[in-house]
Write a structure and sequence with these properties.
This protein is α/β, with parallel strands linked by helices. Helices cover 28% and strands 11% of the residues. The chain has four domains: 149 residues, Rhodanese-like domain (Oxidized Rhodanese, domain 1), CATH 3.40.250.10; 126 residues, 3-Layer(aba) Sandwich (Oxidized Rhodanese, domain 1); 150 residues, Oxidized Rhodanese, domain 1, CATH 3.40.250.10; 127 residues, Rhodanese-like domain (Oxidized Rhodanese, domain 1). It has a five-stranded parallel beta sheet with strand order 1-5-4-2-3.
Length: 602
């Protein structure tokens, strides 16, 4: 029995409405999360799921004797498990998960059914996220299906072992595609499992799993998928094998290849977890391979992995994503929205007063002039870890909270990236920027409100990464050593010294050797961040090498974070900020270190 790999929410809703869920059609919620995510797939299923669905647990339907997570079960185990879910060899199975991506673990279960000889399986395109978005019903009611007989026959050719992968390093009989985020593939950011370091299998290519999906959580079109494979230098006419952390999201690549007409892609079931545990040091590759000498321009690190929970969080979230979260009453301890608006004094705009008049529903106000170093001579210098912990905790934010920040500036992003960076600086990686800010939110006619309820305070523990913060002394030393690129995010006129600074006691200009990329050049007319290809081009044309250390500066350490955001989206692991920026530099530096086409410093 053959079926479509993807089915729509509309199709499934029609089946549910017609009471056709039963022995011939079974729906499975396959939601699975890393333990540190503090999300319980089975518990969430008990609270809400698609009517008629059962829960499929990949940790239960596995080889429980294996030291590695959710290793494939025997044919007998699989037959018994799915038979008890009311699934026979004649059932059409539809799988989905509740991940924010739209698909995370469901592709693993889709592949498992096919692996065990059951091609009658489909994925709900867009997952539970899209199901809810389209207004289809959900329920907490569950009736256990009547058990039936299922007979599994495993296609062992579709599974690669540690020995197969080791041999392939020499023979190159098949292409290996690693779907983990690019920074983990490079070995620049940590793995989610203790004792496992990041890196990749020699000769493998990187295609992050979430780039097989669009911003709405839907699978890319066959044409877009083929372009993705082509840009990653993966030949769909040659054998393929997918790998990831533990064999789950590798199945995104298998699904994508299947949609593109290459249905025989395999999976390395042990994946990186097993590989790192067993492989000799010379087979733990890091950095850029000779076959991939620079990060691919197409690559979009929308979801960097500096921490465990960040595995489910994108750097940029869309207005539609946030609107869906609000409509589904998800704003609370697990998801907080912050209006991080801030304006220069000369604009005569009061962001706190504007917040009181209109803000995104559920948002709180984050004041960078309050959450800062007290009694400092310079504006909004970074606070201590203790101050940051107390401030954000009083906004209802804990260490497990996903934070979304935005601002109301006409550019679409001005001060929000500063607060995004602050959270990351203080060790909280589950933070996103609302792409396009309030500007794009209003353009889409999304709701605003003047109502505000102060959140219940939460405990937050901040850990400052001091290496990301640069000082006056660091900049002065770098002018002499020329070891690091410094990008100035101010407008070109202020950088050159031909247009005034917004602060009366500071003249325009720049320090020797710095590169000017005005922050707003990374934004389009709608206020959204440019595609990564365009950011990469912008950086290259300005003379910035994304592979080398990068520091940023601006007037007072705010819009420099737009540059940091852009570099982060290109996979740079640690762009740094000169917190005092030009205001401090002008006040402290000798005249010969003030480069200006204007008056300069006397």
């Amino acid at each position: 029995m053959g079926t479509q790999a993807l089915i729509s929410a509309k199709w499934l809703a029609n089946m549910v409405k017609r009471n056709l869920v039963g022995p011939s059609l079974r729906i499975l919620d396959t939601s699975w999360y890393l333990p540190e995510m503090k999300r319980d797939g089975k518990k969430e299923f008990a609270q809400t799921h698609i009517p008629g669905a059962s829960y499929f647990d990949i940790d239960v339907c596995s080889d429980r004797t294996s030291r590695f997570d959710h290793t494939l079960p025997s044919e007998e185990q699989f037959s018994d498990y799915v038979g008890n879910l009311g699934i026979s060899n004649n059932s059409h199975v539809v799988v989905y998960d509740a991940s924010d991506f739209g698909a995370f673990s469901c592709t693993r279960v889709w592949w498992m059914f096919r692996l065990y000889g059951h091609p009658g399986v489909s994925i709900l395109n867009g997952g539970f996220r899209n199901w809810v978005k389209e207004g289809h019903p959900a329920t907490d009611h569950y009736t256990k299906p009547e058990p039936v007989k299922f007979s599994a026959k495993m296609n062992r050719d579709w599974v690669k072992s540690f020995e197969d992968m080791t041999e392939n390093i020499t023979t190159q009989q098949f292409q290996v595609v690693d779907v983990r985020p690019y920074a983990r593939y490079l070995g620049k950011e940590p793995e989610p499992r203790e004792g496992v370091e990041s890196g990749h299998i020699p000769g493998s290519k990187c295609m992050p799993f979430y780039d097989f999906l669009d911003e709405d959580g839907m699978m890319l079109s066959p044409e877009a998928l083929k372009r993705f494979f082509q840009k990653a230098q993966v030949d769909l006419t040659m054998p393929l094998s997918g790998t990831c952390g533990s064999g789950v999201t590798a199945c995104h690549m298998v699904l994508a290849a299947h949609i593109c007409g290459a249905p025989g892609a395999t999976v390395y079931d042990g994946s990186w977890y097993e590989w790192f545990t067993k492989a000799p040091k010379e087979h733990i590759a890091t950095g850029i391979s000779s076959k991939l000498c620079t990060p691919p321009r197409w690559y979009r690190l929308r979801q960097p992995r500096n921490s465990i929970m960040a595995a489910q969080v994108r750097t940029l979230v869309s207005a539609q994503w946030l609107l869906d979260a609000i409509k589904n009453n998800r704003i609370g301890p697990k998801l907080r929205i912050l209006d991080a608006s801030w304006y220069l004094a000369k604009t005569k705009r009061d962001p706190r007063a504007e917040f009181a008049q209109a803000h995104i529903p559920g948002a709180s106000y984050f004041d960078i002039d309050e959450c800062c170093k007290k009694n400092a001579e310079l504006d909004h210098m970074l606070p201590t870890s203790e101050h940051f912990s107390e401030y954000v905790g009083n906004l209802g934010i804990g260490n497990e909270t996903h934070v979304v920040v935005y601002d109301t500036h006409d550019f679409g992003a001005f001060s929000a990236p500063r607060v995004w960076w602050m959270f990351r600086l203080f060790g909280h990686k589950t933070v996103s920027v609302l792409d396009g800010g309030m500007k794009h939110w209003l353009h889409n006619n999304n709701p605003v409100t003047a109502e505000y309820s102060k959140p219940e305070p939460q405990e937050f523990k901040a850990v400052l990464n001091e290496t990301w913060v640069k000082t006056y002394e660091d900049i002065m030393e770098n002018i002499k050593t020329k070891q690091v690129q410094v990008v100035d995010a101010r407008p070109a006129g202020r950088y050159r010294g031909t247009e005034p600074e917004p602060r009366n006691d500071v003249l325009p200009g720049h320090y020797p050797g710095s590169i000017n990329i005005p922050f707003y050049s990374l934004l389009d007319d709608s206020g959204k961040v440019l595609p990564s290809e365009d950011i990469a081009k912008l950086f290259k044309e300005a003379g910035v090498d994304i592979q080398k250390p990068l520091w940023t500066t601006c007037g007072s350490g705010v819009t420099a974070c737009v540059i940091i955001l852009g570099a982060h989206l290109l996979g740079h692991p640690e762009p740094c900020l000169y917190d005092g920026s030009w205001t401090e530099w002008f006040k402290r530096a000798p005249p010969e270190y003030i480069i200006s086409e204007g008056q300069g410093k006397k």
